Every structure is written in structure tokens, then in C-alpha cells.
Amino acid sequence: AFSDALTGLFASYGILAALQGRERTGRGQLVETSLAQATMAFMNEPYSGLFANGKVPDAFDRPRASGVFCFVCADGKPIAIHLSSPNKFWESFAKAAGHPEMLEDPRFKQHSGRHQHAEVIRSTLAPDFAKKTRAEWTVILEAADVPFAPIYQLDEVIEDPQIRHLGMVQRATHPERGEVRVLGYPVKLSDTPLGPVTAPATLGEHTDAILGEIRSEEHTSELQSRETIS
After folding, report:
1. DSSP assignment of 1-28
2. Which of 27, 92, 147, 230 is most exposed, with minimal Cβ within 10 Å?
3. Is the Cβ–Cβ distance between 153 and 78 less than 8 Å?
4. What is the pLDDT of residues 33-64, one digit of tens each?
5. Whole-number pLDDT of residue 70
């Protein structure tokens, strides 16, 4: 499903580019993409690494390089820490996690060392994170100014205050199911705001309207052809 949506996005970009080209040249053109092309293009970063050094990354190469650590808290809820930024965040994190002695360890002095010994850091701190709930760690990490984020399940995402503020979950009326929840559009335009969201169409709901438009266009085209001949 991820590749399906991604391919639709890339196809939209291609269509917009073709329309822009038509404005300049007056000529339309065929726009093509595929699931394979769109998915590979979205993975530009790992492929760039492969082309540059020939190394096939494993599942944890990117998190290690970025200084990302994930821990499961006492309530079974996971949390992610992001330490690719300045050393001050690593220092705040080590202290907040209750291990200030790690700041004196030469293995962890620089980002490159933490990258190399990421598993040591994870295994050292994992037992401590398992002693407090995610809500408790949220308070501790926020107070210490540590970059972090909860790792949500889908139902947790829609309850997040920021997601509510962004209006990403909206309600619409479906002709058969009544009120339903749908995802809002992720882009907002200042001068041409979008209208209210609509529920998914029922099977064949718009068939007559679409066929009517096609017949109308065909009829108009036929009349224009007759006028040209006459």
C-alpha cells in the first residue's frame, strides 16, 4: 500500500510537469511511472550510499549513523531518541538516563565513536528504560531538552495533540455508512483553500456523471468537426 500511494504522488508530479510543458510548447505528452520506479526513487539516500561505497546497508545502518536509539518502556510502549545533532544532546541524554559516567567513556566522546559502539549504548540503557513508563520518560527527556519522540501505533497517532491541531483526521457523511472518519489533505493553500473532505464514493456512484461528461465532450467534438468540414 505504501508503494501504491507513492506511485500516485510521483505520477501527479509527472502530470504537473507535463501540463507545465504544454503551457510552453502547446504539446501534450505521455506520462509514465511504475511501483518499482517510484519505490526505488524514494530510497534515494540508501542507493546513494550503495553507489558511493559499494556497501549494502543493513536494517540498522541508518539509525546508527543518525544516532537514533529505540527503547521499550515499562508499559511496553516504545520511544525513540535522536542524537545526530551537537554533543550537548548526547550529554543531556546520558545524564537524563541516569548514566553520567558514560560521558567520560572515550568510546562515546564523539559521534563517530557512538556510531561505532551504538549497540553498547543501547544494551546499557535498555534495562533502565524498562523501569519507567513512556509517560514518565517523556517528562524526564523534555526537562533535559533531549530530542525524542514516542513511537505510536496508528490509534495513538490520531490522539496526539499536534495531529489534532493539524486537522489530519476529519469527518464526512457517507451515503451508506453515515458519519465516517477520513484523513485530511496534508497541504494547505493560503489563497485557494480546499473545500470540506468527502467520504469515499460507493461503487458506481459517479458512473452516470462521468459517462455524461464523456458523451457531452464527444458531441461537442463532433459538432466542431462538422463545422470545420462545412
Report:
1. -HHHHHHHHHHHHHHHHHHHHHHHHS--
2. 230
3. no
4. 999 999 999 999 999 989 999 999 888 888 99
5. 97
Cβ atoms < 10 Å from Cβ of 183: 10
- Report residue 203 as a C-alpha cell: 461503487
Bridge-based pairing state of the strands 148-150 and 68-72: unpaired
- Which candidate, 101, 88, 84, places its Cα nearest to that of 144? 88
Q: What number is the average pLDDT over the span 94-113?
A: 96
pTM, rounded to two decimals:
0.77
C-alpha cell at position 226: 462538422
Alpha carbon distance, N-terminus to C-terminus of the chain: 53
Alpha carbon distances (Å) from 213 to 140, 191, 219, 221: 60, 29, 10, 12
pLDDT at 207: 94
Matching residue, cell 502547446:
26
